[in-house]
Write a structure and sequence with these properties.
Quinone Oxidoreductase, Chain A, domain 1; globular; Rossmann fold; six-stranded parallel sheet; binds nicotinamide-adenine-dinucleotide; 26% strand; binds zinc ion
């Protein structure tokens, strides 16, 4: 099969022939139809998050089951699925206390002495975040996918695989935004726009979208933002404190920068909660004013929207089909696998929303 291989950080992905193993008892071979290009892929490409190389990036996809392992009963050939990097074991303390997105069990991967899922002429290719979706086939654990209805368009379904689940989930599950509350979202890429849409579904009163690109702020309005702030103007925190008459109840950082993570805390009102979704480069410290803790301001992280994706993703599809979740506006462009490097490059400017790779059927 063809795959986009990352051999060295900060070099373009190479389209190469790669071999995929046969499904083990609890594995599923999926033929992806669509795969989104997320900013997290770029963080691993540019080395702000180290990863074992060579690898095949990509972690936001939807596809069709091609073959199942001997013990798999949940799906069969021909089923439509969305994949999720939050593969869960189902029996560790994180899973059993309802925190499936935090499961770190190694059993969803193959062991070191087994044939690797992906290889090239007997040399292993490391699977990326249990998935590796910039490839014509994906061999994944059965707990890394959810079965979905067949009338859901695959390119929209792919978005649910990461950005929707991360952004909407951060609002619903991590922060638990209340109806009527004042919300700000910093960064209006795939993830931030999903958080804005999620805040609208949750019934937030004020939803302030922050970005440096006006066209992104326009999309944010279409998805439910009540106010917008172009961050290039300088005093973002001051403007938002004024707009909300004292600060936000909930803020979401969806970029991955020290400065904007600090801003997300600074723009809270008393009792407010900042949720950092963006991947801040490894080794970077985030600084807060200690006195703010007396006003019961809180800051927390969010991993993949604290998801229970087998429950959440089918619900998000129902929201989309009911016209509440706006996925059409999130897609800037459909591309071929060979154009993946252009899509990664485009993420650097922030000017476009999601690029979706469509695989040849
Ligand atoms: N926590 C998780 O589980 C998780 C999951 C997926 C993605 N992420 C992370 O979320 C972040 C966003 O991902 P994405 O795919 O939406 O990215 P993206 O590149 O599509 O969007 C980022 C947006 O931020 C804007 N921006 C950049 N600098 C800014 C600034 N200083 N002020 C205001 N706006 C600014 C850009 O214009 C762009 O619209 C990334 O760090 C990604 O790695 C985290
Ligand atoms: Zn992602
Ligand atoms: Zn587990």
């Amino acid at each position: 099969m063809k795959a986009a291989v990352l051999r060295e950080q900060n070099t373009p992905l190479e389209i190469e022939e790669v071999q995929v193993s046969k499904p083990g008892p609890r594995e599923v071979l999926v033929r992806p139809v669509a795969a989104g290009v997320c900013h997290s892929d770029l963080h691993f490409l540019d080395g702000s998050y180290p990863y074992m190389l060579p690898t095949i990036l990509g972690h936001e996809s939807a596809g069709i089951v091609e073959e199942v392992g001997s013990d798999v009963t949940y799906v069969s050939k021909g089923d439509h699925v969305i994949t999720c990097l939050s593969a869960f074991c189902g029996h560790c303390d994180k899973c059993l206390t309802g925190h499936l997105a935090l499961c770190q069990s190694p059993e969803v991967s193959r062991e070191a002495d087994q044939e690797p899922r992906l290889h090239q002429n007997s040399q292993p290719i490391h699977q990326f975040l249990n998935l590796s979706s910039f490839a014509e086939l994906m061999l994944i654990h059965e707990h890394a996918l959810v079965k979905v209805r067949k009338d859901m368009p695959m390119d929209r379904a792919a978005l649910i695989g990461c950005s929707t689940t991360t952004g909407v989930g951060a609002v619903f599950h991590t922060a638990k935004v209340e109806p009527g509350s004042k919300v700000a979202v910093i960064g209006c890429g795939g993830v931030g726009l999903a958080a804005i849409n999620g805040a609208a579904i949750a019934g937030a009163g004020q939803i302030i979208a922050v970005d440096m690109v006006d066209s992104k702020l326009e999309i944010a309005k279409a998805l439910g933002a009540t106010h917008t702030v172009n961050a290039s103007s300088g005093n973002v925190v001051g403007e938002i404190i004024e707009m909300t008459q004292g600060g936000c109840d909930y803020t979401f950082e969806a970029i991955g920068l020290k400065a904007t993570a600090e801003q997300s805390f600074q723009m809270l009102g008393a009792g407010g909660t900042a949720t950092v979704i963006g991947m801040i480069p490894v080794g970077t410290m985030v600084e807060l004013h200690g006195v703010d803790f007396l006003a019961e301001k809180k800051i927390q992280g969010s991993n993949m929207g604290s998801n229970r994706f087998r429950i959440d993703m089918p619900r998000f599809i129902e929201f989309y089909l009911a016209g509440k979740l706006h996925l059409d506006e999130m897609i800037s462009k459909h591309i071929k696998l060979e154009e993946v490097n252009d899509a990664l490059e485009a993420l650097k400017s922030g000017k476009e929303a999601r690029h979706i790779i469509m695989f040849d059927s």
